Amino acid sequence: MKKVNAKYGLPEKVIFCKRCVMSNQRPASTVEFNHTSQSKKITLNIGKDGICDACRYADKKGKINWSEREKELLVLLDKYRKNDGRPDCIVPGSGGKDSAYAAHILKYKYGMHPLTVTWPPVLYTDYGYKNFRNWIEIGGFDNITYNRNGKVSKLLTRLSIENLLHPFQTFILGQKNLAPKIALQLDIPLIFYGENEAEYGNPIGDNSTSLRNKSIFATKNLNEVYLAGVSIKDLVDVYKIPLADLQAYLPADYKKLSQSTIEVRYLGYYLKWVPQEAYYYAVEHTGFQARPFRTQGTYSKYNSIDDKIDDLHYYTTFIKFGIGRATYDASQEIRNKHLTRKEGCALVARFDGEFPDKYFKEIMDYIEMKPESFFELFDKFRSPHLWKKVKNGEWKLRHTVNKDGVDD
Fold it and tell me: N or C: which end of the chain has fewer CB within 10 A?
């Protein structure tokens, strides 16, 4: 068979995990924060036994002594807990199930004083904004929301689509970089994210230590930083965006961060993290409500529902990596034993690749992009090792988890 080159540094041979429905084409989310234009892709590792790292971590979770982990958490919290009225930790989030759970349990079970920090969606859904307000008002939290320059946000979102077919890239960068910068400004020593990155097979330790050792949160050289596939220099010189208007998206200053004692932790390291349980907890304690309809591209209603662009983002991962939203959701639920692999395969066959048209026109109008221009990008970003055009001109995946791809 003729060799077909893979884009994005993806493995040329497509392998599916024997336990979940994820393939080795899934890039690690940490790749989002490796800012250089020539960054090497890191993908999900599937071992010789056919089991992926994320499923392996799920096995490890089942053997962890969670009582001992909670004791570790108490030691950490006692180290930083304040009684002078100042916040002692930051919980980044939007009021979705995970940030709602993390902030609430830290405050009301463990006696911490979290400041919630929000990088808002590009386009809030009505129910997403309601969940955000409920998080603050019913849950009872102080909150800093960074309302970024809307003109720049629109431009960067459109450029991210045109250059990377990644509607969410600048949102993800802003969201990830905001908390460390707020922590530096307000001298808050501890940042809590929810799920451990290892949940998804990402190459990151079980528990991050000092934030100054996390290069993904800081930069020494702005010349190495790209936003929306464009260098900072070109964004300033060619697109005429003042550097001050780009600062919100950029990593923290390396020197300041390296001199700080700020720590970032994953609450999922200390407490057994089950997304469905976090959902039930958020419903009970912060008034969280699921989407009033099924999310297009998948079967669920409560994962990542606050941004209208979120659904489109997952469709672009289907184009670039052959991995749609149902694959992400089903894999996670298989690992938590809420689905069988057979059920997951059926859900992937039914929903992966469904185009999210509900908010599509509104998104295109907002970023001032013609819908036909968006669709024209697909052929450019399809990797030939994943896709093949069949006789009727339709694109088909070469390999699928159900083994019904054109080359299976």
Answer: N
Can you tell me the distance from the alpha carbon of 381 to that of 317, in angstroms, rounded to the nearest whole number? 10
Instruction: Read off the pLDDT of each residue in 304-331 and give the average, rounded to a whole number.
Output: 96
- Please tell me the distance from the alpha carbon of residue 338 to that of residue 319, in angstroms, as a whole number: 27
For residue 12, give the DSSP letter: S
The domains of the chain are located at 66-270
Q: Which of 357, 369, 326 is nearest to 163 (CA)?
A: 369
3-state SS, 190-259, equals EEEECCCHHHHCCCCCCCCCEHHHCHHHEECCHHHCEECCEEHHHHHHCCCCCHHHHHHHCCEEHHHHHC
Backbone angles phi, psi at 123, to 5 degrees: -140, 100
Q: For 139-156, how does the pLDDT look when each residue is reduced to its tens digit (9 = 90+)?
A: 999 999 999 999 999 999
Model pLDDT for residues 101-146, shown as the tens digit of each residue: 999 999 999 999 999 999 999 999 999 999 999 999 999 999 999 9
Contact 199, 52 (CB under 8 A): no
**At which residue do the structure tokens 């791809």 appear?**
405
- Pick 66-270's CATH classification: 1.10.1660, 3.40.1350, 3.40.50, 3.30.300: 3.40.50
Predicted local confidence at residue 2, as pLDDT: 59
Main-chain phi, psi angles of 163, to 5 degrees: -95, -25
